[in-house]
TrEMBL record:
The keyword Nucleotide-binding does not apply. It comes from Companilactobacillus zhachilii. The lineage of its organism: Bacteria, Bacillati, Bacillota, Bacilli, Lactobacillales. InterPro entries: ABC-2_transporter_component, ABC2_TM. This is ABC transporter permease. It is found in: Cell membrane.
Length: 407
């Protein structure tokens, strides 16, 4: 057992100390930081460029408009000269001049481009409300007459918002899950296959197998890679949580987070569930197969080619999920959710859409776990025969010879 953990820790430490692992870990956070930084710089440089100023000799008109539309108005500008200078420096979209002449309210907009539909609608609404208030005051109506004129029609909406949000959350969760599974599997199948293939036919392997059993060495390699995967997932979870806390408090993203809080919560609930177990087990079974593929290459120089068969299998499983995103009733979906190498894609898809019972999930997990144990045990038995082959024979000859070595 001690030798098993020596191999495990040696594999783990060698991988985590490599520059490729460091970049793999830091890559998403660097992209997040660059995106936030670029957004902040863009927002800072463009601050005020989309706002308008309100100019009016009647201070009441100006104050009332600012109260009704605080977000679109630069309140620091109060005269035409300052507004024009700001516009010329591209620090102001334009200015609105409000006038009151003989009981009539009017507005004149001067800008570098036409008003947006939302801003224009709010300006028209303010002008109409102000004019109506002045008309009522000038008409000297009784309170009952004013109340009668102020009657407004009503429009009610009954929308199943939770249903709509849940459906969108399922779609987003589906794409995040399959892409995440695909990317992690591709990364670690390549790492594992090259890790095994690089030792192919070397003298050091004969020395290692004389001091420990092949199955212990093989399992140590697999466990080492598994620890690397767990370390990456843990860093991503902690870093992702930190990024989410930052986004909740950042002025740049706070509004977006608050607006889509329910959607983000639903997506996170779908991801941080039993689906993570399927991700982990899927990586394990693909890693074992990648180790087998790496052991089958003719020589260490072929390490780059070792992962190709496993990558192609992963690619096939990835693309097969696409047609069934909205067709979960298909018998093929139900079958593949129990088939090892495919269940890590299809069962999470069913879980996200609430299409799998607890019994079905348990059965799928049991099949996947038994397949992992059986595959690891069998490959461990023939591992020495595969690794000590040095002849440059065909793939199938090496495969048959490896299978014949079973002790």
């Amino acid at each position: 057992m001690n030798k098993l953990w020596i191999v495990t820790m040696e594999t783990f430490l060698r991988q985590v100390k490599s520059w490729s692992f460091v970049m793999l870990i830091l890559g998403p956070f660097l992209m997040f930081g660059i995106t936030i930084g670029a957004g902040y710089i863009g927002a800072s440089s463009g601050a005020g460029a989309d706002k308008i100023a309100i100019i009016s000799e009647q201070s009441t008109l100006r104050k009332n408009f600012i109260k009704s539309d605080k977000d679109d108005v630069d309140r620091s500008i109060t005269d035409k000269q300052t507004a024009t200078k700001k516009m010329n420096k591209n620090k102001l979209a334009g200015y609105l001049e409000l006038k009151l002449t003989n009981g009539k309210v009017s507005g004149h907009y001067y800008g570098t481009s036409s008003l947006g539909s939302g801003t224009k609608s709010r300006i028209n609404s303010y002008l109409m409300q102000t004019q109506q208030q002045m008309n009522l005051a000038n008409a000297q109506l009784t309170p009952s007459q004013i109340q009668a004129l102020q009657q407004q029609p009503t429009l009610k909406e009954s929308i199943k918002k939770k249903t709509g949000t849940a459906n969108l959350a399922k779609t987003i969760s589906f794409w995040i899950t399959v892409i995440m599974v695909y990317m992690i599997l591709n990364t670690y199948t390549s790492i594992t296959a090259q890790e095994i293939a690089s030792e192919k036919g070397t003298k050091i392997m004969e020395i290692i197998f004389s001091s420990t059993t092949a199955i212990k060495y093989f399992l140590g390699k697999i466990l080492g890679v598994l620890l690397v995967i767990l370390a990456q997932v843990l860093v991503y979870l902690l870093g992702g949580w930190g990024a989410y806390i930052f986004a909740q408090n950042s002025t740049l993203t706070k509004g977006f987070i608050n607006q889509y809080h329910a959607l983000i919560g639903s997506v996170m609930k779908n991801l941080l569930s039993i689906n993570l177990v399927y991700l982990l087990l899927g990586v394990i079974i693909y890693t074992i197969l990648a180790a087998f593929s790496g052991a089958l290459v003719a020589k260490a120089e072929d390490a780059a080619k070792a992962a190709q068969p496993v990558i192609m299998l992963n690619l096939a499983a990835f693309f097969v999920t696409f047609p069934f995103q909205n067709n979960l009733d298909s018998i093929l979906v139900k079958i593949l959710s129990y088939v090892p190498f495919f269940s890590s894609y299809f069962m999470p898809l069913r879980i996200i859409n609430n299409d799998a019972s607890g019994l079905e999930i348990s059965l799928s997990l049991i099949i996947l776990l038994v397949s992992i144990v059986g595959l690891a045990a069998y490959i461990g038995k023939i591992y020495q025969g595969l690794m000590l082959q040095t002849d440059d024979s065909s793939f199938w000859k090496r495969f048959k010879r490896g299978l014949s070595y079973n002790k």
